[in-house]
Specification:
265 residues, alpha/beta, Rossmann fold, Dihydrodipicolinate Reductase, domain 2, 5-stranded mixed beta sheet, 32% helix
């Protein structure tokens, strides 16, 4: 049994993670951390009756008490790096779905993992369909280098662009390089109307009630348009990837970024 703790247990993603892990015979939830529901039983939060695992308010104290192997983190962009470092210092492998981690943060985490021979897994999107969407977009960029990304999320998402959009942009840029698109004399009559620029192409973020997580990568060529799109219609779509990561990351060393690194093992 893999001993797992969930940080951000009472959030929308946290509750889905608890439910998914509770159904997997190879995983055991040994701890849950969340400030808002400290003292409550996770089984009662899920409507399943008492489980014997209560939500605790302090991450490090919970780690020291319950000694998990894995910490799944879906919390807040401002808290996630601190949570990751707390887990690493205490010999726990972070499996992170919280977005908003910067390149500087990644560099710091990578350096710590290398120096301490530790393991950390950070994933901008746990949906297997989203991983395939990014792979297909990377391949398309070799042949249709002119593109734009449109990502759409619920209106409570705190960061923009999404981690998925940024990783997709990085993968595309790795194939086509920096290419300034559009008319050189283009003028934005309202600043920001053309979206954010990344290596010459644009990323657009939409935040509206009703969305969960969606992304289109649109490629334009002579006389043709190619659209690659992925839709997560519920948060349940991320759970197979979360559970897979909890199982597959054990045995790896260093910082691993992206679910594609674990698929096929």
């Amino acid at each position: 049994m893999i001993r797992v703790m969930v940080s951000g247990a009472n959030g929308r993603m946290g509750r889905e993670v608890l439910l998914a892990l509770s159904r997997d015979p190879e995983c055991e939830i040994v701890a849950a951390v969340d400030l808002k529901t400290a003292g409550e039983d996770i089984g009662e939060i899920l409507g399943m009756g008492k489980s014997g695992v209560k939500v605790e308010p302090d991450l490090e104290a919970s780690i020291l008490c319950h000694r998990p192997q894995i910490m799944v983190d879906f919390t807040h962009p401002k808290a996630v790096v601190g949570n990751v470092m707390t887990a690493l210092r205490n010999g726990v492998i972070p499996v992170v779905g919280t977005t908003g981690i910067t390149e500087a943060d990644l560099a710091m985490i990578r350096a710590y993992c290398e120096e301490s021979v530790a393991t950390c897994f950070i994933c901008p999107n746990f949906s297997i369909g989203a991983v395939l969407m990014m792979r297909f977009a990377q391949e398309a960029a070799r042949y249709l280098p002119h593109c734009e990304i449109i990502e759409m999320h619920h209106d409570q998402k705190l960061d923009a662009p999404s981690g998925t959009a940024l990783l997709t942009a990085k993968m595309i840029a790795g194939e086509r390089g920096c290419l300034k698109q559009g008319h050189p004399g283009e003028e934005e009559k309202i600043p920001g109307s053309r979206g954010a620029e990344y290596d010459g192409f644009r990323i657009h973020s939409i935040r509206l009630p009703g969305y969960v997580a969606h992304q289109e990568v649109i490629f334009g060529g002579v006389g043709q348009i190619l659209t690659i799109r992925h839709d997560s219609l519920s948060r349940e779509s991320f759970m197979p990837g979360v559970v897979l990561a909890c199982k597959k990351i054990i045995g790896h060393k260093g910082l691993v970024v992206g679910l594609d690194q674990l698929l096929g093992e």
